[in-house]
Design goal:
By secondary structure, the chain is mainly α. It contains 14 helices and no strands.
Amino acid sequence: MDRDRLETVSLRWLRRLVIAGFLLVTLLPFWYMLVLSVRPIERLLLDPGSLLVPVGELTLATYAEVLKSVEDGGQGFLAFIRNSGVVALAATALTLVIAIPGAYAVSRLRFFGRRQVSALFLAVYLFPSIVIAIPLFVVFTRAGLRGSLVGLVLVYISQTLPVSVYMLKNYFETIPVSLEESAAIDGAGRLGIIRRVSLPLAAPSVMAVALYDFMIAWNEFLFALLFLVDRPNRWTVSLGLSLLADGVEVPKTVLMAGSVILTLPIVILFFAGERLLTEGLTSGAEKG
């Protein structure tokens, strides 16, 4: 075996080992969390390190306890899931409604301060969330929106809109102007061009932005805590999970069941839209 062949084989196996290592580090905690969530607490205390569960020990009682309402002796996660779903879907939809025409305007229209506006979208992320949390808390309290899901949706839009505009702008810039000019010659207006030409071509990027926005809104904790702490009936899943984590009397198996419920929708969405997410995130990387 010559040197070139040896290096090729070595790098091939090294890549496989690195991928296997990353998979192990990523999947093992989730697998252990899943195992803990379907084991009876008494079996967990006897053998806490087991990564396999005998079929006879499998139980879904922990999930039933997590999902049942508080009045029925459960943790009320079904209401938390509904609140998180409403907030995440509303924030994602409204962000796209604003970000699509905004990104198109920044990428296609010529106006004073166009480059500065693009830089300001990213400048928002130079500051940690806690810096704007107090001003938003004061403003929304005076506006009567604190403690409402509508106020939380507006807060999430302020977090997701800048990066959504920036991501979509990069993709719109890769669409050939000649396609839009041809549509304009055929009599299409600006809105018609966006709807019939730009949006169909930008579908992968729009899906990537939608998944990104949904994941942010679903997992967010800080603003949900600030705005909904005194309204338990409007808590999101992340707040409900923190309640389980702080409860001394809550078994760890129930806590793990809540963690699975919080994590599973994001995992399913990621794998369902993995191809679109990859295409959308890399769509604006090259031009030409």
